[in-house]
Amino acid sequence: MSIVKIVAFLFIFLYAIPIMTVLCCLFPLFRHICFAGMLYFTSYEVSLNFVPMPDWIGTARGYAFTAVSLFAVPLLLSMFFGFNFKISLFPPGSFFYFLYYLSVLLSGINAIHMHQWGFEVYKMFWMYITFLATYNYLNNSKNLVYFIYLVCCILIILFLVGVYQKYRIGLFQISSTFPHQNSLSLYLEVFGLLVLGVLMNEQISRILFTFCLFAFGGSVLLIVFTYSRGGLVVFFGGIAIVCALSILFNGFSTRRLTLMLIGLIVMLSIVGYALPRIIQRFTKAPEASKNTRIYLALAARRMANDFDLGVGANNFCEYSGGGGKYEYTKEHYLYGMPEFGAIVETTYLLVAAECGWWGLGALLLWFLYYYLSVIISMFVFRKKPFSGIVIGLFAGLSCNYWHSTLEWSLKQFNNFAEQMVVYALIGVIAVNRKKIKAVYKRSQQRAEQQRSKLQQARQARAALQQSGNGSIG
User: Fold this and answer.
1) 3-state SS of the chain: helix, strand, coil percent to 5?
2) Residue 48 region by backbone torsions, left for phi larger than 0, else alpha for psi between -120 and 50, else beta
3) End-to-end CA distance of the chain
4) Torsion-angle region of residue 53: left (phi > 0), alpha (psi -120 to 50) or beta?
5) Are 226 and 173 in contact (CB under 8 A)?
6) Could you give the CA distance from residue 150 to residue 171 in angstroms, rounded to a whole number?
7) What is the pTM of this model?
8) What is the CA radius of gyration of the chain?
9) C-alpha 340: how far from chain center
10) What is the pLDDT of residues 231-287, one digit of tens each?
11) Are 202 and 246 within 8 A, CB to CB?
12) In 10 A of CB 32, how many CB atoms?
């Protein structure tokens, strides 16, 4: 570790974080700024990396302290030391995360490369800090309008960067601020569909409606210009889910039908413009790419069968390569292959290979907990506020879980951090369901009382007019 990194690390923890925490305690506005910074940097990785291994073929390549953590720590500490905040260190779903975390820790028993195993353990610790900071901030502020504005701004920034890459640099497949177009696709599937759910179902201001419209339109263009085959199929499938559930839970309306009609015309225009290259991506894909996916999936299954606790988190490439030492990829590689091989292109089999079948079970329990929670919220908030948000979240999770059968990007930093933010949001909505329903019921009662008073006033005015006309006659 260089002296520069040591100095930077000491400065961050001895000066930057304490000062930022004090500012958050003294000035509530600074707490909102920290949340905005934390949320933005889920889309753009800026990190101070200790023991970096940039050439390592794995899901983590160093002990990275990221800008997300830099903003999350003072945000969380300021609420912890504040007097007016209720802090939960174990929000909904934490048990299942720790169960999955335990599988990662136990996989270290078989890990050959302990440093690389430590990278993943270290990353998951900071991901939980992000989860805690998001959950407690949203649960105490109870204002999701600010959150939606931030999501829209992030999507618009990603779109502008993507446009620059495509038309100024001339890239064929854009990735915006992400390391790969597949990572960008997974990110857009969650936040892009969340924004669509808000557009189609929530009562929002004209300014926020405009923001959401631009953000979602930018998301569609970005997905098309990634030319990611999985991203294109999954994202447009997610749009269909949002539209269908919006009508199913909230009924037909002029607004929804208009948005669907305009959206269909715009999407057909965009897809028509990019159709030749999209067809090329589907028809000209090399056969070797498909075969590699199959061979690596077979290798992952063999590893999971041979190692009850897995081969070790972030150690898959040791067994998919090895210069002929291992037989796990015998269909694909011959002797003389590289020392470290590729990673299996599916999150689920990767976890099974690295943490064992029981580790995959723990991961699925964690995933399903929030999936079921958001399904319950959809029924609870039918034709009520938050209906659009939970419909968008359901579609986004459906797409990410679906897409993760084709990519391991969900374990990359950006997508992992976004997932923790979304899970925190789902948890906040779940624990406040009764309060939200009660507030909505009171608002409906007040509205009904106002309508009743207005009706009575109109009747009284009409009676006066009639009596006046009678006296004149």
Assistant:
1) 75, 0, 25
2) beta
3) 100
4) beta
5) yes
6) 27
7) 0.91
8) 26
9) 30
10) 888 998 999 999 999 999 998 888 888 888 877 777 777 666 666 666 665 566 666
11) no
12) 17
